[in-house]
Amino acid sequence: MSDIVVYGVPGSPFVRGVQMGLEEKHVAYRLHPIGGQDTKGEAHLKRHPFGRVPAFEHGDFSLYETQAILRYLDDIFPEPAFEPADPRAAARMNQIIGINDWYFFPKVAAVIVWQRIVGPALIGLKTDEEAVAAAVPLGRTCIAELDRLLGSQPFLAGDQLSIADLMLAPQIDFLVATPEGRAMVQGTRLEAWLARMNARPSMVATQRPEPLRGAA
Ligand SMILES: N[C@@H](CCC(=O)N[C@@H](CS)C(=O)NCC(=O)O)C(=O)O
Predict the structure, then answer these.
(1) Measured distance CA(39)–CA(37) in Å, rounded
(2) Angle 103-16-96 (CA atoms, 0-180°, nearest 5)?
């Protein structure tokens, strides 16, 4: 059995990013599924005191925070490299991770995807239309900026797949399952990028489970 364990809610974009990293590197791992309602439970808080997913173990080494996990994987399994050697490409990758962690996930994707898909599917939530509408302007800014940074490159930080693609593809794939997300991404170069990412075996192998797969 693999000594790598990913603890996470199946389908969560951050969890999926770590799983994709392991799939891309062809490293065996075990997904220990956590229920959405169990992230703040005692057992999981011991792994992740902030009650989030993913949490990660490699033998006796435990870690949380998606980008830290992906950087660690890149250090111990160097091929294929996820961090560009070119300083400017590496800086772009880090910039895009920052956009995801500070603006795009917490203020846009988490709000719209929760209100439109996850909340209704898992707890029968009635969508708060005002919350969705309030998240759209920043969403447009994030998507416009990611589109600009992608430009005509194959991947977000240049010629090679990087941690930026691994973190953003699961987020944007989830967002475009909502009408607001589809409208934001339509007509941008991110559409073709997402199609290329969705064709990768790492994305195919880490599909969201059924209740979270459908379009809102
Ligand atoms: N900064 C964290 C963010 C992780 C995060 O927010 N994960 C979400 C799921 S995509 C989560 O755990 N949500 C559950 C909750 O808030 O209870 C990371 O990079 O791993």
Answers:
(1) 6
(2) 30
Cα 53 to ligand 1 centre (Å): 5
Distance (Å) from CA 26 to ligand 1 centroid? 24
Q: Which atom of ligand 1 is nearest to the CA of 8?
A: 12
pTM score of the predicted model? 0.97
pLDDT digits (tens, 9 = 90+) for 86-99: 999 999 999 999 99
Contacts of 47 (CB under 8 A, 6+ apart): 7, 55, 57, 62, 64
Joined tokens for residue 121: 């599917």
Closest C-alpha to ligand 1, atom 6 = 52
Q: Which ligand 1 atom sits nearest the alpha carbon of residue 68?
A: 19
Query: Which tokens is 62 given?
Result: 């435990």
Return the residue whose CA atom lies nearest to atom 10 of ligand 1: 12
The terminus-to-terminus CA distance of the chain in angstroms comes to 38
**Smallest CA separation from ligand 1 atom 2, residue:** 65
pLDDT along the chain (216 residues), means of 10: 91 98 98 94 97 98 98 98 98 98 98 96 95 98 98 98 98 98 98 98 96 80
Cα–Cα separations (whole angstroms), residue 94 to 98, 103, 119, 157, 174:
6, 14, 30, 9, 22
- The rounded distance, in Å, linking the Cα atoms of 168 and 104 is 9
Residue 77: which of 28, 15, 6, 16 has the closest Cα?
A: 28
